[in-house]
């Protein structure tokens, strides 16, 4: 593609010598002959300092926020991130316009909701592209993911691949980081969903109001908004939105409502009322939070044109989501073990109260907190773990560059406040082994924080570590 076409997309009066662009990248290590290198200003580094390396490797042109002393064409822009998104959309032929685009944002529930949407669409005979925390998927093909929402250049490349493979519908998790960093800039979503908002990522956003504002950005680029009206922040999210709004709720008046709720070990049953009829739903995933996720998925899909019958069929066909209240095979042992991705105070409370509702004996929780992330939530999670567990095992999660002991100590403050009995075992494998050794008949152990993750990050190095695998291995021994 000619650079002049990209310049036109960016609204730049292009007067330099034209260049043929063969790829777009923001990573100087991936530059090849003909690349358009985007100089992004980040929190840690400035892409302008790597422009020389890009030129040496054969970059054909640069996107810059200020002109650099290199003798190749440069598109000078005010905002490099927005420019990269628009350039990538243009370079890949606007694949987002060839498919139905659906986006989900919120602190918790994004992953489960996207899998529910995927199941509904597939039961209706549609080919689905999924972009999210666990993995990216094109139909049944799994594409590994490094972050919840890819950088725009990578995202539009993936969307192009999806469109070329005849995907009908794309359902994606849209993180607050992605919204602030303009990774989805230029995409118009046909329907966007807000699940909920609780404390997380304040290491990045600094204040809760900033975090809320970040989530709200999604609804400035959608045709229809679906909002969880039971969330205490719903009104702020809805305030000033110019698109049609539909709401979900159990405790407040809403467009989509759940009643006659029956929560069991094996799942939940509830009556779903929609603007186009009502139906009894039988979900194979337990917990009140699963009902909220299902209502959100149902509302999105009905507003996207799917029938109530297709929605019911898709929700009931989903057997579970990896790392979301996932039962581990205990080889006939008289206790139960679940792994869950819960790594925020609200998510931990949701999973523990769900398990408590069907527990016949003790509930034990084992969890830590990630390093280099929101430190304020550590004592909160400790207190919640203690309040909803009969026994707590505090351990390490992904300490990253922090000392695990300092993270554990902050969690311990909260557990002490709850008054619950607890023990501290920093080594996660040893902690799991200890937890399994003290389980008695009908006890339930909830191992929280990592869920689907198959690694533990220590001092910047990722080591293979899968909670589910560790439990199964220890039980075999």
Helix content class:
25-40%
Within CATH, the superfamily of the largest domain carries the name Mur-like, catalytic domain
How many domains, as an integer? 3
The main sheet orders its strands as 8-7-6-9-5-10-11-12-13-14-15
CATH architecture of the largest domain: 3-Layer(aba) Sandwich
Which CATH C-level class of the largest domain is it?
Alpha Beta
Provide a descriptive summary of the structure in words:
The protein is α/β, with parallel strands linked by helices and 477 residues long. It has three domains: 3-91, Udp-n-acetylmuramoylalanyl-d-glutamate--2,6- Diaminopimelate Ligase, Chain: A, domain 1; 95-317, UDP-N-acetylmuramoyl-L-alanine:D-glutamate ligase; 326-476, Protein-Tyrosine Phosphatase, Chain A, CATH 3.90.190.20. It is built from 16 helices and 23 strands. Helix 4 crosses helix 10 (288-303), helix 4 crosses helix 11 and helix 15 (428-437) crosses helix 16 (467-476). The radius of gyration is 24 Å and the shape is globular. The model has no long low-confidence stretch (mean pLDDT 94).
């Amino acid at each position: 593609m000619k650079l002049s076409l990209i310049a036109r997309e960016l609204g730049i009066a292009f007067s330099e010598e034209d260049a043929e662009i063969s790829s777009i990248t923001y990573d100087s290590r991936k530059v090849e002959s003909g690349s358009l290198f985007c100089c992004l200003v980040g929190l840690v580094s400035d892409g302008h300092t790597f422009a020389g390396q890009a030129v040496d490797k054969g970059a054909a042109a640069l996107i810059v926020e200020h002109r650099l002393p290199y003798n190749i064409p440069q598109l000078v822009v005010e905002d490099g991130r927005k420019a990269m998104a628009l350039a990538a959309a243009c370079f890949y032929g606007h694949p987002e316009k060839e498919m139905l685009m659906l986006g989900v944002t919120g602190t918790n529930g994004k992953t489960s909701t996207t899998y529910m949407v995927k199941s509904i669409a597939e039961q209706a005979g549609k080919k689905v592209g999924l972009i999210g925390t666990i993995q990216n998927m094109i139909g049944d093909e799994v594409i590994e993911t490094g972050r919840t929402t890819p950088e725009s250049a990578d995202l539009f490349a993936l969307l192009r691949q999806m469109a070329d493979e005849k995907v009908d519908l794309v359902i994606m998790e849209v993180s607050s980081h992605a919204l602030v960093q303009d990774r989805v800039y230029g995409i118009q979503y046909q329907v966007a969903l807000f699940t909920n908002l609780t404390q997380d990522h304040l290491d990045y956003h600094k204040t809760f109001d900033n975090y809320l504002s970040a989530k709200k950005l999604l609804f400035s680029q959608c045709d229809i908004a679906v909002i969880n009206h039971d969330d205490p922040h719903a009104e702020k999210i809805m305030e000033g939105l110019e698109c049609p709004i539909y709401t979900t709720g159990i405790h407040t008046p809403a467009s989509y409502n759940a009643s006659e709720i029956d929560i069991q070990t094996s799942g939940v049953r509830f009556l779903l009322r929609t603007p186009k009829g009502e139906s009894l739903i039988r979900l194979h995933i337990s917990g009140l939070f699963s009902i909220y996720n299902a209502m959100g998925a149902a509302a999105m899909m009905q507003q996207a044109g799917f029938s109530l019958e297709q929605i019911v069929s898709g929700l009931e066909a989903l057997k579970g989501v990896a790392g979301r209240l996932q039962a581990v095979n205990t080889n006939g042992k008289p206790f139960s073990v679940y792994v869950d991705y819960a790594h925020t105070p609200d998510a931990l409370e949701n999973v523990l109260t769900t398990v408590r509702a069907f527990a016949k004996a003790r509930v034990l929780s084992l969890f830590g907190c990630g390093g280099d992330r929101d430190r304020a939530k550590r004592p909160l999670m400790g207190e919640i773990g203690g309040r909803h567990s009969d026994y707590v095992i505090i351990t390490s999660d992904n300490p990253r560059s922090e000392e695990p002991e300092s993270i554990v100590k902050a969690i311990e403050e909260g557990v002490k406040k709850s008054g619950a009995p607890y023990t501290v075992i920093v080594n996660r494998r040893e902690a799991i082994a200890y937890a399994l050794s003290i389980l008695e008949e009908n006890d339930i152990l909830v191992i929280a924080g990592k869920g689907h993750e198959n690694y533990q990050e220590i001092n910047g190095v990722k080591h293979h570590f899968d909670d589910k695998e560790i439990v199964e291995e220890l039980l075999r021994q």
